[in-house]
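Appendix B, example 12.
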Amino acid sequence: MSSLTPRILTAAEARAERDALLAAGRQLVFTNGCFDILHRGHVTYLQFARAQGDALCVGLNSDASVKRNKGPSRPINPEEDRGYVLGSLAAVDFVVLFDEDEPKDLIAQILPQVLVKGSDWAHYVSGREVVEAAGGKVVLADMVAGKSTTNTIAKVVQVYGAAGNGQEGSA
C-alpha cells in the first residue's frame, strides 16, 4: 500500500497504532465527526487537532449514524467517499468508521492521549471521562465562523434550487 493511500483502520488496528506511538513516547490525538461535505472549517479544525499531538485518528460516523444524527437526507456523500477524502488529507493519519451515535465506545477502545472537539461541543464531549481517567486531556477547538456543511448545502440550494436547475455537469 502506497503512503498516498488513505488509511481506513478498524478500532483494533487504531489501538495498535496508539500503542506503538505510546511506546515511542508519542501521542495520538482523536477527533470525530460526520465530515459530509468537506469545507475550510473542517480542514482548519483537523489541522488544529493534528497539531495537538504526533498522529491524528479521525472517528468517522457511518452513514447510518449520520442519518440518525442529521436526518434522513444526510449524508450527502457515502462513508466510503468521506473516509477516502478525510484519509487523503495531510493532517489525518488514519480514519476509523463507527456506527454508534457517539464515539465514546470507540474512544475507550483506542484510548488516545488527546481528545479534540469543537468548542460548539464544550457542553458535552463524548469520551471525555475515558480519556481524562487514563491521564489524557481534552482540547476544544475554535470553529471557523460561517463555515459548516449546513451552510454549504443551503448555498447550493439557494444557487441551484432544491431540485437543481438542469445545469448538471462535472466538478
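Residues 11-23 form the longest helix (13 residues). The chain has a mean pLDDT of 90.
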